[in-house]
Amino acid sequence: MSAILFILFAGLAIGCAVAVVAQRNPLYSAISLIGVFVALAAIYVTLAAPFIAAVQVIVYAGAIMVLVIFVIMLLNVEQEERRRKRLGFLVPVAIGMAAILIAETAFIIYSVQVSGAKPPGPTSDVGLTHSIGVNLFTTYLLPFEVTSILLLMAIVGAMSLARQGKLLSATARVVPGAQVLAMDIARPHGEEDLTAVEADTTAESAHLMGVEFQSDPEERE
Amino acid sequence: MEPQLSWYLALSAVLFTIGAAGVIIKRNAIAMFMCIELMLNAVNLTFVAFSSFFQDVSGQLFVFIVMTVAAAEAAVGLGIIIAIFRNRESLDVDEASILKM
């Protein structure tokens, strides 16, 4: 029974993976990739790892692929047009490297086959959320914290990469308590001006930007 | 018949190989990005298979961390792709071979 399930989902995963590479339209590639992720999640369930399966669907098929599809739609990438083969020699190189990879892994698989590990029993609690959580916050606490720093770096990097517009000029004076506004924020349709404007209070910056500002929120009604 | 550990490793090897070949063959930056995700998933499958066959939870924690790295990579990588597209109006990596704006 579980062998049938494995073959079913492995076939689905390999078929979708081939489609990812074979499709010329990146959107179709992305949808095939979601198929790979879902098939792998099903295989994780048969491996008695329900937590990882759920995270796979939520994080990969949910968050990451939504981001990728969003970028594909945003950039309006047209179909990869068939061009002359400028780097045609790369195709046999790719096939050769794939053959080497398969040979290496076949060796490892043969060694594992001889070792004879047991498949997971029904009483296993290794993949449950409880055991993962306990290990994550005891033995693997340091990697967990390092991961949070990595995510912070990713946030800062993504923001600085996606930032459009000019940075503050090098001569901008920033003092504690002052708000520094770039000129293109204060006057969006103004001239190309790199000097920053300074405002000491929120009211002053609101005046610079030409918006209504009321200090007392209750006066709004 | 129960699936053996070697079956999972073989599936992982096939997926990784397809991903690696895709990174080499593809020219579109987003498609290459997706092939890298495919390779990361093949590695994850190996981790989970070993973890579950040897009854050790460490492998699944590694998978958890690999997923975090993939999420960070998606955020920064797509930011880079948008920046390249803004400058060159194209996602062809052959045209972006010079690291210059």
Description:
By secondary structure, chain A is mostly helical. Chain A is about 60% helix and about 5% strand. Chain A has three domains: about 1-80 and about 95-125, NADH-ubiquinone/plastoquinone oxidoreductase chain 6, subunit NuoJ (Four Helix Bundle (Hemerythrin (Met), subunit A)), CATH 1.20.120.1200; about 130-165; about 165-215, no CATH class. In chain A, strands 1-2 form a two-stranded antiparallel sheet. In chain A, α1 (about 1-20) packs antiparallel against α2 and α2 (about 25-45) packs antiparallel against α3 (about 50-75). The radius of gyration of chain A is 27 Å and the shape is extended. The termini of chain A are far apart. The mean pLDDT of chain A is about 80. Chain B has about 100 residues and is mostly helical. The chains are: A mainly alpha (about 220), B mainly alpha (about 100). At the A-B interface, α1, α2, α3, α4 and α5 of A face α1, α2 and α3 of B.
Outline of the structure:
The complex is a heterodimer of chains A (221) and B (101). Chain A has 221 residues and is an all-alpha fold. In chain A, 62% of the residues lie in helices and 3% in strands.
Secondary structure blueprint with pairings:
The complex is a heterodimer of chains A (221) and B (101).
Chain A: H1 2-22, H2 26-46, H3 50-75, H4 90-115, H5 129-136, H6 141-162, E1 179-181, H7 183-186, E2 197-199, H8 202-209
Antiparallel strand pairs in A: 1-2
Chain B: H1 5-25, H2 29-53, H3 58-88
Helix pairs in contact in B: 1-2, 2-3
Which CATH architecture of chain B would you pick?
Orthogonal Bundle
> How many domains would you count in the coordinates of chain A?
3
Compressed to H and E, one letter per element, the order of chain B equals HHH
Q: From the helix content, strand content and strand pairing of chain A, which structural class follows?
A: mainly alpha
Would you tell me the structural class of the helices and strands of chain B? mainly alpha
Largest sheet of chain B: none
Mean pLDDT of chain A: 80
Largest sheet of chain A, order of strands side by side?
Answer: 1-2
Going by CATH, the architecture of the largest domain in chain A would be Up-down Bundle
Largest sheet of chain A: 2 strands, antiparallel
How far apart are the termini of chain B? 58 Å
Strand tally of chain B:
0
